[in-house]
Write a structure and sequence with these properties.
heterodimer, A: 838 residues, alpha+beta, seven-stranded antiparallel β-sheet, six-stranded antiparallel β-sheet, 25 helices, elongated, disordered C terminus, B: 147 residues, alpha/beta, five-stranded parallel β-sheet, 5 helices, 16% strand, globular
């Protein structure tokens, strides 16, 4: 807006006026119902205290004349219309007007001149401006032609007010000083600062008046008191004076009007009519105002009125309204000073408004900073925003707040019920379509169901952080029953005229009319709404920052994984090489020098070789274990019957002793990584065969539902709760059961530790002790659990699941029921076997 | 002057102990044939040797078989394999990988790049003997090699 060219601004504002007014409403047909559309910029009439003449700038042919020309300047409209301006003015005066048109208005206006009226010379101040294709000359009689204003007069008059405006510390003080100074400069009985609210209504926020007058300070006037088009005119013409409210409007006539008036029989020239568009009087000082406005002022008891516009950022912020109890004229120069002071006040307004509530704004800023700080260190957005509920409320000075995230609502302070907010969210989402912030002080008007909870939420400030994630913060303010002091009852009264026809006219009483306003909260200040918006920016900024950090962590993790991979590889390779050397050279020693070493020496070298082989196995297992943990899982449906059959066949081939394998029921087809699950079954089944001293080895492989496992009492408690009763019927629990040596209770944790062995190396076929560790890793990679029950000396059952059950259980090695614990205790004699770890 | 070059085995191996063990096995255990052995202890030497032979206009004296370790100082065995198998002349020489690495990724990629066999160095000397002798038997006696 600030970048807009003045000419654009004028054109836009004029277009706005044209768009909301209806040219066919005339001064005689306007009433309170259609006054909002009255074309007040083209009244075709002036106030009687001056004469208006319009002429074409090329030929100086006079096109418009106000009908009071005869008595004011001694020339009738018929005399002037259609003739050249030269019949009225001297050549020098016309040259001066031409200078005006070249753009040097201010240097020339007003042009002082004398005209011969009834053989006496009369002094006038003439003001020139351009309106579309004509030049408008406005003549105002002056008392004394010699009384001229110069720069020093101007300076003297504005110096003191300007410096007082600048020194004012607050908006309130500025307005108080403004009315004092303008009362001084204008001499009006009452000067007020009238400020518009967002809804178009306004109130008197400063007043200087004669002591005997009724104060208007603090009174509010409805939006309808100043129609929109009048507000637009105030934007373009910064000062409007009505020296005598009870004036009779003087029509402005054109050539066609006078022809018609002079000879009724004469046929109006259609071409003349076509050519005469109504004269645009937007910038005219003499423009006749709406009859409703003068009626309004009369009802108020005002005899003279002047308005000075207060415009900030191309918006009409307010008016300086001056009232006088008797007719009052103000010469052009004085009006210019008033206009200038109005602009000076408007300039100060913006600065003072920024400083208004500065302490409160600083407090909000401090809270914001704190929030950003808290958010940076919070795990979740919810924690960051709701951990310090008082601050969240203080940020917008609210009594209650709600944090909504994907339908989950957290309440703080005084709020409507959760279900009320839930119902309101879809409506609110619609409001968010037009902006991230929605605020109201009368929620029940915008959202009818809110009538049920006006006590807690008459005011709502809603901030959408992410519509996609349905993430928003709502602040609530309670109802505060307020009184509004109106300047008279703002409801338009119906007046019945004598003839019984109802006509509407402006209200007559402007006495204080107090209204009680319900279901309304205190207003949201713009700094509070800004605080909400800035909170949003901070949150979004942090989310982006988090995403960056996460990406960085990911790349670091990736790098460390690659490093780990390299490490495992290098370790395996570089450790194996010297081992192989030791092994080879020991072997060469035996081959080359066996005869000299003797049996004992040879045996020791053979031990050395055995140890190096064992160490190589350990390194290999470690490497394998690390690969299982990191290899990418290829999850696909696997027929476990085929898989287990393959494993069993392989084990049967490599082990000579007969073992009976039992698969009581067909196994399911299950989504898992075939390679890893093959290894899982291989390790469990081969352990079942290996750690078995029974003459008839038995291994049973099966599958049951978690429900059945629960019924058998072999589902660990932790898993039971994490699976839940409903899912239990569908969750598969696999098991490998043997009649082997069993495992003592105290070793049930240790068996899963890598390289942990419960037996001497040479018993049960040896091995590195990584099998169960790898088995457990495979299960965990699939998101499942591995646990066992066992009776020492009688056999063990290893159970496992292969799917996620929300939380990982650590009850893998826990006995599921007391019964089996007892069984283990009863048979829990001291171990007969040695335990070795390398 | 030798008109007919005698065939030889090129061993690319940086570990002296491993090479000694290999040589010992070749000379003592694989006794039913004899073949000359040349050794390069790094990948660059091996490539240089073979390239020199392949570019000499006549009488290119290329190895009958290459035994290639993967972890080598400087140019890695994996790169050596790639270079050999991308060279129009050298690519016909059978390359047998003999390495400590049992990493499935290595096995996969070596075959993909054209390795003719992949042997994991056994720990045990007896196993080494079996491995080396069968490999030599296969490549030098059973199969027909390019001229």
């Amino acid at each position: 807006m600030t970048e807009m060219l003045v000419s654009d601004f004028v054109a836009q504002t004029k277009a706005a006026i044209a768009s909301i007014t209806a040219p066919d409403i005339s001064m005689s047909t306007v009433d309170i119902n259609n006054c909002d559309r009255e074309p007040i910029h083209i009244p075709a009439a002036v106030q009687p205290h001056g004469v208006l003449i319009a002429a074409r700038p090329d030929s100086w042919t006079i096109t418009h004349v106000s009908q009071n020309s005869t008595e004011q300047i001694g020339r009738s409209p018929a005399d002037l219309l259609g003739n050249s301006l030269h019949t009225l003015l001297h050549e020098e005066q016309i040259s001066a007007i031409q200078a005006c048109l070249r753009g040097d208005f201010e240097a020339v206006n007003p042009l002082r001149l004398t005209l011969e009226v009834e053989r006496a010379s009369r002094a006038f101040a003439m003001v020139v401006h351009r309106s579309n294709d004509v030049v408008v000359l406005e003549f105002e009689p002056v008392e004394d032609l010699q009384q001229t204003f110069n720069f020093f007069d101007f300076h003297k008059l504005v110096k003191r007010p300007i410096s007082r405006f600048q020194q004012a510390k607050s908006l309130g003080e500025l307005c108080r000083v403004a009315v004092e100074e303008l009362k001084q400069v204008t001499g009006f009985d009452r000067v007020m600062v009238y400020r518009f609210d967002e809804d178009g209504s306004g109130s008197v926020i400063a007043e200087a008046k004669q002591p005997d007058m009724t104060p208007y300070l603090g009174l509010r006037y409805p939006a309808t008191d100043i129609p929109k088009q009048a507000k637009y005119l105030y934007l373009l013409n910064l000062l409007r004076l009505i020296p005598e409210v009870g004036y009779e409007p003087v029509p402005v006539v054109t050539a066609s009007d006078t022809n018609a008036g002079q000879a009724d029989a004469a046929i109006e020239s259609p071409t003349a009519l076509e050519g005469s568009a109504p004269l645009d009087m937007t910038l005219s000082a003499l423009r006749s105002v709406s009859p409703l406005h003068t009626e309004y002022l009369t009802n108020m008891g005002v005899c003279a009125s002047m308005s000075i516009s207060l415009v900030t950022g191309n918006q009409l912020w307010g008016l300086i309204a001056c009232h006088h109890n008797s007719p009052r004229r103000l010469p052009y120069e004085q009006r210019t000073i008033c206009e200038f002071l109005g602009q000076a006040i408007a300039l100060e307004l913006a600065a003072k408004e920024t400083n208004e509530n500065i302490d409160y704004k600083l407090k909000i800023k401090a809270l914001q900073t704190k929030f950003v700080e808290t958010l940076t260190h919070s795990e979740t957005l919810k924690d960051g925003l709701t951990d310090d509920p008082q601050s969240l409320l203080a940020l917008t000075n609210s009594a209650g707040a709600a944090f909504c995230e994907n339908g989950e609502i957290t309440l703080i302070g005084e709020t409507p019920e959760i279900q009320d907010i839930e119902k309101m969210l879809p409506w609110l989402d619609g409001e968010f379509a037009s902006g991230a912030v929605y605020s109201t002080t009368t929620l029940s008007q915008d959202y009818l169901p809110a009538a049920d909870f006006t006590e807690h939420a008459s005011g709502l400030l809603a901030l959408s952080i992410s519509r996609a994630q349905r993430l928003c913060v709502l602040w609530f303010r309670p109802e505060v029953v307020q009184t509004v002091d109106w300047g008279g009852n703002p409801e338009k009264p119906v007046e019945t005229s004598d003839g019984g026809v109802a006509t509407l006219s402006p209200r007559r009483s402007f006495a204080l009319w107090r209204q009680i306003v319900q279901f309304r909260s205190l207003p949201w200040l713009s700094c509070e709404i800004e605080a909400a918006l800035e909170l949003r920016s901070a949150v979004i900024g942090l989310v982006l920052q988090r995403a960056d950090e996460l990406a960085q962590l990911n790349s670091e993790l990736e790098r460390s994984n690659v490093e780990l991979d390299n490490f495992a590889y290098i370790a395996s390779h570089d450790l194996k090489e010297p081992l192989r050397g030791i092994h080879s050279y020991s072997s060469f020693l035996i081959e080359d020098y066996g005869d000299r070493l003797g049996d004992d020496g040879t045996r020791k070298l053979q031990t050395l070789m055995r140890l190096t082989t064992r160490m190589e196995d350990l390194i290999g297992s470690l490497l394998h274990y690390s690969r299982i943990g990191r290899a990418e899982l290829l999850i696909e449906p696997v027929d476990l019957n085929q898989l287990v059959e393959g494993v069993v066949n392989l084990i049967q081939m490599s082990r000579s002793k007969a073992t009976s394998f039992i698969i009581p029921e067909p196994l399911p087809t299950f989504a898992c990584d075939q390679t890893q699950v093959t290894e899982l079954f291989t390790n469990l089944i081969s352990n079942a065969v290996k750690y078995n001293d029974k003459p008839e080895k038995q291994v049973e492989i099966g599958c049951m539902s978690a429900q059945e496992a629960m019924a058998q009492g072999c589902l660990p408690d932790s898993l039971r709760t994490s699976i839940g009763d409903e899912a239990a019927a569908y969750s598969s629990v696999f098991y490998v059961r043997d009649n082997g040596i069993g495992i003592k209770q105290k070793h049930m944790d240790a068996i899963f530790r890598i390289f942990k062995r419960l037996h001497a190396q040479n018993r049960f076929g040896g091995g590195t002790g990584a099998g169960l560790t790898i088995a457990k890793k495979v299960v965990e990679r699939h998101g499942g659990s591995l646990w066992l029950t066992s009776t020492f000396g009688e056999g063990s059952t290893f159970y496992f699941t292969l799917e996620q059950a929300s939380s990982q259980s650590d009850g893998a090695a826990q006995p599921p029921s007391e019964e089996s614990t007892e069984a283990i205790e009863m048979t829990g004699e001291s171990a007969t076997t040695g335990e070795a770890t390398l | 002057m030798n008109h007919l070059h005698s065939p030889y085995l090129l061993v690319v191996e940086d570990s002296d102990e491993d090479f000694e063990a290999l040589q010992r096995v070749l000379s003592r255990s694989c006794t039913d044939f004899h073949i000359d052995v040349k050794r390069c202890s790094c990948g660059d030497d091996a490539l240089e040797l073979m390239r020199k032979e392949s570019t000499s206009s006549k009488n290119a004296h290329l190895p009958s078989l290459v035994l290639l370790d993967l972890n080598l100082p400087g140019t890695d065995g994996r790169e050596v394999l790639i270079e050999i198998k991308q060279d129009e002349v050298l690519k016909s020489i059978p390359v047998v990988i003999l390495t400590t690495s049992s990493n499935p990724k290595d096995i996969q990629s070596c075959y993909r790049y054209g390795a003719n066999s992949y042997l994991i160095k056994p720990m045990d000397v007896q196993q080494l003997k079996t491995t080396v002798c069968s490999t030599m038997d296969y490549w030098l006696k059973i199969v027909a090699l390019p001229g």
